[in-house]
Amino acid sequence: MRYDLVVFDNDGVLVDSEPLSNTILAGYLTELGHPTSYEDSLRDYMGGAVHRIHDLVLERSGRRLPAEFDEEFHGRVFEAFRRELEPVRGVVDVLTELRAAGVPYCVASSGRH
Fold this sequence. Notes:
By secondary structure, the chain is mainly α. It is about 55% helix and about 5% strand. It has helices at about 20-30, 40-45, 50-60, 70-85, 90-100; strands spanning about 5-10, 105. The two termini are about 30 Å apart.
């Protein structure tokens, strides 16, 4: 069977960024005075939008996160991605085979560019 196009999701298919981003989130929240373990971060925030972090912190502590939270958090995450993020095992081979077969592929994601 020949495919006209293969569309990949990014997280969990091409890369698995959740362990890295949740480690950073837990550390940053703890640094800001909101003690959070890696397990807490996975349970409470994984897969959610950043406004969920703001909402839960406010609900639980009565305090707002700093105005620069989003920018600082994303900066830390993207720097860690540049240094440490690896492709999911086997995906490089899949992409190589698709390219060799002339099958176009792309990524569909709700994440920002």
